[in-house]
Structure of Lipoprotein:
Amino acid sequence: MLRKFWGLLCFLALSLVMGCGTGTGPVTATPDEVQELAVAIAALSPEVDPEEAYRAAKISFEHSRELAIQYEITDPPLVHNSKVNMGIKPRGLCYHWAQDMEKRLKAERFETLEMHRAIANASNPFRIEHSTAIISAKGADMYDGIVLDPWRLGGQLFWDELRDDTRYKWVPREVVMDQKRKLRAQEY
């Protein structure tokens, strides 16, 4: 009971601070936006197939929109997170977006592109942990990839080269999960 009350109190506080109904929600990308991302993906390596780059870009935008509808996005990300955590909304935490984006793009079985997952702020107790999907050239390091983050703008795809995404310090998901397992083991 106390947990539910605390969740409601946090939700109301976030709603007052951030305002309700200001999330981007479902957005349809323009052909120019898709083309810009396709060019950036193709530029990751001369080995990247331009057709695959275009398909990945188109799917990234389309799937972001589909997920925004599925997750019932109507609010900014932190307000929506509160609703998910309270059971009001079905999904839409950052790791849901990252997981679903990765799964959708992996289903394409690209021959010249590869998907990665990353987490930021895992070791910072003063910031909320954040997850994302990253696309790179096949065999390339995730740090040479492009962040695909529909959570950040409330359903509208944010993308940028990982090295230029200075808002977050991304760490491979596997590294973060391994660190968490080691910490849990030390507690016992």
User: Anything to note?
Assistant: The first helix runs from residue 2 to 18.
